[in-house]
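> call design_seq(struct)
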């Protein structure tokens, strides 16, 4: 019969026997799926066993942070083997575009956290008029309408309008 050594589990058992139960918090890099559309970024994370009140999502300078802390559950009896010690998850996501922070939503469904981060509209180019220093701004004056023959239309001149 060969000797089997599971270093992590067996080391935990040896340390527990020598020093008592160690209160270890395991921080895990939270695996994510990130999709993007023209309208939004969609971020999905598997967080089984977490409740909505145990997850905090923040946005600071276009970096979305997901942090979850699950309280350990007391059980009857000692473990023979324990591998699910995940009590804390943490992840930063740098977003490549400006977003609408006030419209971000998050929801839980079947152990999956889904975050919708709407994109902000790109600034549209505008034309900036250039003026000459010391010259008064240009005024726009309505010109009288001209008929096809090239003569002034009496109905559209300011003088004929006030005479009527």
């Amino acid at each position: 019969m060969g000797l089997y050594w599971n270093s992590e589990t067996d080391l935990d058992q040896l340390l527990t026997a020598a020093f008592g139960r160690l209160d270890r918090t395991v921080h895990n890099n939270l695996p994510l799926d990130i999709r993007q559309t023209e309208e939004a970024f969609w971020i999905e994370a598997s967080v089984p066993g977490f409740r909505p009140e145990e997850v905090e999502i923040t946005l600071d300078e276009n970096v979305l942070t997901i942090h979850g802390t699950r309280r350990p559950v007391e059980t009857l009896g000692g473990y023979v083997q324990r591998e699910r010690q995940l009590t804390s998850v943490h992840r930063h996501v740098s977003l490549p575009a400006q977003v609408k922070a006030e419209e971000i939503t998050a929801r839980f469904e079947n152990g999956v956290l889904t975050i919708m981060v709407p994109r902000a509209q790109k600034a549209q180019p505008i034309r900036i008029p250039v003026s000459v220093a010391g010259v008064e701004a240009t005024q726009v004056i309505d010109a009288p309408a001209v008929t096809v023959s090239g003569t002034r239309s009496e109905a559209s001149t300011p003088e004929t309008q006030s005479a009527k």
